[in-house]
Automatic annotation (TrEMBL):
Tree of life domain: Eukaryota
Domain Pseudouridine synthase I TruA alpha/beta: 139-224
Protein name: tRNA pseudouridine synthase
Keyword set includes Signal: yes
Catalytic activity: uridine(38/39/40) in tRNA = pseudouridine(38/39/40) in tRNA
Organism: Emiliania huxleyi (strain CCMP1516)
GO molecular function: RNA binding; tRNA pseudouridine(38-40) synthase activity
Family: Belongs to the tRNA pseudouridine synthase TruA family.
Amino acid sequence: MVAAITSLFLCLAVQRFRLRAVAQYDGRRFHGVQKNVRTQDGAPLRTVLLTLEQALWPALGRQVKIGVAGRTDAGVSAEGQVIIFDADTLDGEAACVSVDGSAVRVPDLAGALNAHLPADLQLKRVDVVPSRFDVVRCGTHDFAAFQSSGGDQRSTTRTVYRCVVEPRCGELVGGSGEAEVAYDVVVEGDGFLYRMVRIIAGTLLMVGMGFAPAETVLTALAADAGSDGGRCGGGGGGGHCPKAEMRMRGIVGPVLPPEGLCLEHIEYDREHSSVSGARRREL
């Protein structure tokens, strides 16, 4: 009885933390990850993100923003998809989340939330991650949408090892009289296209300020956003457009000023002496 009361008391000390979940799903009955509608009548299609929202929002008691690391197309399954969301928790071993009004420890959270999810979409585990943790899509992709005209690279395929938004320690900005925290967009990769990092930062800024939807980066990196894949909005008036036109149409970007960019260091693969083995990190 004493242990139960102690656990309840700890769970009442509420803080908001970021949670990372590893999900698995059978893609045969899903129309991909991102929310989408049926062309004929505009009815919402069954997607992974929509299903997560419909299940987790009532269970957690509020509309949490859910981020998904990788975009999979209709019919594609996943064993280790990563999602993130914020919830009211207490850090430490007794970290708890309110599910249906009951306190659930984070290690037990996957099981509690799975009771609200369908059998073909389940969470394998949930853990607490740093508040700056994001699921910005890393890996090898065609970054043509994030290149300014004038670049001379033959290939627009690059590998990004890391892309995170970090608070700049000890530095405050702003002339409004109130302290405002500065942030850095840190990008590590094997090479960058012309103005690529500045366009990535500009795109993340648009998303963070609410001027662009959260799935903008996923749309720009989608495998089918080539000659006829990426949907054009803004002045384009719908339809599709090549990746290279997405920035001109205001879907990604803008290019942030060069004064904010800094080449922090260059790393070389110890097993190879060639420059092609370098990993570069930019702010």
